[in-house]
Amino acid sequence: MTWLKHSIMFPSVFTDKLLRWVLRSGAVVSALVMAMIMLFLLVESWPVFQHLSLTRFITDSSWHPLEDAYNLMPMLSGTLFASIGALFLAIPLGIASAIFIVYYASPRSALLYRRLIELLAGIPSVVFGFWGLTTLVPLINQFHPPGASLLAGILVLTLMILPTIALTAYAAFSAVPNEYMRSAAALGLSRWGMIYGVVFPAARTGIVAGVILAAGRALGETMAVLMVAGNVVQHAESLFDPIRTLAANIALEMAYAMGDHRSVLFVSGLMLMLLVMTLSGLAGWLGKNRYA
Amino acid sequence: MCARNKCWVIFVVFFIIVSIWPNIGSAASKKLIVTGSSTVAPLVSEIARRFESMNNGVRIDVQTGGSSRGINDVRNGIANIGMVSRTLKSNETDLQAFPIALDGISVIIHASNPVITLNQQQIIDIYTGRLTNWKSVGGRDARITVVNKAEGRSTLELFLDYSKLKNSEMKPHIIIGDNPQGIKTVAGNTDAIGYVSVGAAEFEINYGAPIKLLPLDGVDASVANVRRGIFPLSRSLNLITRTAPQGLVRDFIEFARSTQVHDLVEAQYYVPVSVH
What we know:
The structure holds 2 protein chains of 2 kinds.
Chain A (H helix, E strand, L loop, with lengths): L1 H8 L3 H39 L4 H4 L3 E2 L4 E2 L2 H32 L2 H16 L2 H19 L6 H25 L3 H9 L4 H30 L2 H6 L17 H8 L6 H29 L4
Antiparallel strand pairs in A: 1-2
Helix pairs in contact in A: 2-12, 4-5, 4-7, 4-9, 5-7, 6-7, 7-9, 8-9, 9-12, 11-12
Chain B lengths: L3 H17 L9 E7 L4 H14 L3 E7 L2 H10 L4 E4 L11 E15 L9 H8 L17 E5 L4 H10 L10 E3 L2 H9 L4 E6 H9 L4 E3 L9 H6 L5 E8 L5 H10 L5 H6 L3 E2 L4
Parallel strand pairs in B: 1-2, 1-3, 5-6, 5-7
Antiparallel strand pairs in B: 3-9, 4-7, 4-8, 4-9, 4-10
């Protein structure tokens, strides 16, 4: 039956070869783009690496690039605080939404709820930022001025990454084989016992992937955070202190930066890139050790 | 089919050639070099783009480096035209200045704030954190939210120049990027104080933004007063040359001062100069 393979599944050797080259070209192009972005960041930030020691980015007194002070650490902490805070809120909410859709809601309301979350995923970040600036920030301001704060940033980011987590968790739950559920039901487990004891372990990889994806989005989100977080370069001491993230820093200052100022902005881009790379490395490591 | 390795090399080389293609063989017949202030450069770049599209074969290279670089380059003949974001000083009379736009900024507060005016010292005290409550300048009992601009912006530079402060001495609560964001921030916070381009503020007030422009040193903040040259927080943006401009240089400077570019000037929230 060897003829079958060539004539039906792979109509000719030529098509096979063509497809292979098309796919290869696609892979090369995307890999080159990635490599070029990295190279570009390095080339653009090279001028400062030549005459500034790396410790300056950690030990300088503040971030005032026009006055030769280049401390990036407050922005690193701001980025991490905002992202971790948002994940802290969005993970339970997202997973709860997915559980609701798959196991508790009636088919009608499940569909409605899922459409709602998909809609939330499609809203552009600048709209979230605008809503935050005109509604959320004045609201927080009434309790604790100035309103534009780490808290506002966390809340807006939560809204933005919630759909990512909810939809990937939903997909992961839907992919749990039906036999598992039947066996669990046959064993007389309660619905929550079934979800906790059977579904969670089976869907864990999918959920973790969704969380990593959401974390990446939270780290790199620019416009929405820029509009609500206040952008003062400082280590936040409370939820009500304004902060600046690395991505917001680039967007705020790039338009008018030149010389060293411009180069250090590329350094903050490089740092953001390293942060995301660490995250995906961590994800790979978690994936490898998931059965441990 | 070629050998696998060879194909790879050919593909990669082809990709690189294609990506740098536009840089090869585009030498223009006529070229102007414009250097100087980073405040003026974005506007001049826009004007240059329009000038290039109207005059075939002309290429205008706009580089930044500060007003002093513009002056040096023009004096040394490195640049045809310099860009300077202030009026020329008394020791720079060897150069000719052509204003292309005026830049004015005004202090804004929320429309519901009862404060009517602030003097220069009060503004400085608010921005350095010495005054933290509106009560001490005649307002209600509420904490002042100080809105500052991001480093590198021309409005910040002009404000620092007026207040004689360094940016590291300011104690802001919110840092913003462009003018519309600043106006929305102040409009959404009844106790905020900020500063934006006069043109942008007047525009937004006409569209109903709840903000108030404060007069400075007794002069009302308005585009009209900036144009008249009596508003203290303003400056003129100039193109400079060493000798009386001729040929292409003259054409470009005339174009940059003509009504054909007023929309570009206003898009950057500057005030066009009227030249006939």
